[in-house]
């Protein structure tokens, strides 16, 4: 990534990291570029397309880097994200969440659907009816059916895809495929099986669409933990998001190497009492994600790997610090458990090439 390319994202120009108020998210520009390129290369090797999730980084600048690398479009989770992406990037978008649209968001929804290539998730008669009511009778829109693939969240059994597609078509939707979310892959040791469950569910769902007279152009799979097991043959596209940064979860699940983790939260030591160290980055910076299998709320990067063991809104506590001596006022870098939460909570995110200076990413969109 050329230094001149960073200028386009600057909100206040190049800054010394030491002059930026903590806590803030620090993104290693070279690792970010490498992660984007490597995932795109993986997709090319298996003959699939990439439709990465916008919710991880929430920035049009990074989204454009993904598009420049070859992504066919983006995946979003909310009406606000949809409006942002269609307005600023104008690229094809899959809305992967089931939207409960109200009067306050219906206008944005209609504008996005009318002005761009938007595909909506459906999984029930209710989702079809509520979307059509929000869009109005005249807006032409695509829909993809969410298939349940072992996560036990939302999605229909594959055998019901044909019937649901007919109901969507009667309401004026063009059904173009199926997608799924293998959320069970977020349990250690489950990713390989989750990937195979997903492939089987998508294959059956697509077959049901064909039997019902629909052409499943898009067969959409994946989340970052299952990407090491992505293969050709069933899915035409994959939708990982966290891969751009990585985090402790992805490393613990075996999806990403420690050396690929591109985002840390920079915090200041505000108190020291023996082995107890207090930082100014709490739950509103690190997030509160703490899977039962992953100890702590974050981990120091660098020489010490001490864990953040307690979390408050604006403070966190390392109860047993075991590295080189720290001092009040010193800055440390924390590897967060979930970068999606960090980027949703923090309004200060900076991109650095050299670890000394950085450019600020443009303000993130509303939730």
Please, could you describe this protein's structure?
Helix content is 31%, strand content 21%. The protein is of the alpha/beta class. It has 2 domains: 3-25 and 255-360, Beta Barrel (Lyase, Ornithine Decarboxylase, Chain A, domain 1), CATH 2.40.37; 32-244, Alpha-Beta Barrel (TIM Barrel), CATH 3.20.20. Strands 1, 2, 11, 12, 13, 14, 15, 16, 17 and 18 form a 10-stranded mixed beta sheet that branches. An 8-stranded parallel beta sheet has the order 3-10-9-8-7-6-5-4. Strand 6, helix 6 (125-135) and strand 7 form a beta-alpha-beta unit. Helix 4 runs parallel beside helix 5. The two termini are 29 Å apart.
Layout of helices and strands:
Layout: H1 3-6, E1 15-16, E2 24-28, H2 29-46, E3 49-50, H3 60-69, E4 74-76, H4 79-88, E5 93-95, H5 103-115, E6 118-122, H6 125-135, E7 141-146, H7 161-170, E8 173-179, H8 191-211, E9 218-221, E10 237-238, H9 248-252, E11 263-273, E12 276-279, H10 283-286, E13 298-300, E14 310-311, E15 316-318, E16 331-336, H11 339-345, E17 349-352, E18 357-360
Parallel strand pairs: 2-17, 3-10, 4-5, 5-6, 6-7, 7-8, 8-9, 9-10
Antiparallel strand pairs: 1-18, 2-11, 11-12, 11-16, 12-15, 13-16, 14-15, 17-18
């Amino acid at each position: 990534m050329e230094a001149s390319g960073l200028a386009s994202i600057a909100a206040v120009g190049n800054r010394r990291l030491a002059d930026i108020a903590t806590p803030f998210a620090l993104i290693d520009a070279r690792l970010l570029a490498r992660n984007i390129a490597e995932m795109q290369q993986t997709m090319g090797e298996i003959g699939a397309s990439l439709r990465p999730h916008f919710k991880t980084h929430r920035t049009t600048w990074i989204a454009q880097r993904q598009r420049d690398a070859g992504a066919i479009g983006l995946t979003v989770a909310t009406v606000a994200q949809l409006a942002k992406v269609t307005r600023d990037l104008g690229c094809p978008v899959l809305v992967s969440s089931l939207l409960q649209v109200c009067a306050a968001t219906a206008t944005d929804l209609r504008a996005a659907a009318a002005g761009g290539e938007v595909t909506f998730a459906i999984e029930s008669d209710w989702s079809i009816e509520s979307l059509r009511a929000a869009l109005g009778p005249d807006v032409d829109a695509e829909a993809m059916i969410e298939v349940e693939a072992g996560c036990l969240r939302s999605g229909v059994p594959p055998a019901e895809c044909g019937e649901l597609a007919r109901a969507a078509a009667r309401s004026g939707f063009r059904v173009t495929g199926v997608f799924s979310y293998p959320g069970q892959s977020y349990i250690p040791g489950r990713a390989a099986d989750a990937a195979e469950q997903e492939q089987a569910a998508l294959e059956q769902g697509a077959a049901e669409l064909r039997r019902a007279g629909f052409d499943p152009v898009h067969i959409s799979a994946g989340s970052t933990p299952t990407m090491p097991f992505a293969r050709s043959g069933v899915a035409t596209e994959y939708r990982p998001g966290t891969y751009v940064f990585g985090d402790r979860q992805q490393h613990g699940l075996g999806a990403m190497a420690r050396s690929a983790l591109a985002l840390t939260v920079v915090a200041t030591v505000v108190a020291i009492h023996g082995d107890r160290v207090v930082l100014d980055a709490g739950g509103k910076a690190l997030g509160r994600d703490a899977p039962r299998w992953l100890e702590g709320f974050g981990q120091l990067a660098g020489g010490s790997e001490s864990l953040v063991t307690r979390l408050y809104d604006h403070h966190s506590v390392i109860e047993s610090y075991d590295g080189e001596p720290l001092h009040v006022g010193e800055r440390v870098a924390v590897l967060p458990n979930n970068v999606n939460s960090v980027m949703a909570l923090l309004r200060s995110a900076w991109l650095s090439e050299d670890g000394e200076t950085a450019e600020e990413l443009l303000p993130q969109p509303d939730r």
